[in-house]
Description:
single chain; 67 residues; alpha+beta; two-stranded antiparallel ribbon
Amino acid sequence: MLARSRLIIATHSPIILGYTDAWIYETSERGLERVEYEDLDHVTVTRSFLNRRQTILDVLLSEDEEG
């Protein structure tokens, strides 16, 4: 007999969210909605940062020239 388990985990980790066969739900003004891994903001933001780390850090850590 195959044992089945269900876990509810609240996380922002793209690594944990990427677990094989995971069902991912996101809260919104419409309530809970099931979403695909690739559609998550956390995944796209993390991927963007990893692909362009120095550029993003330069922008985040730059002095505001208007102030």
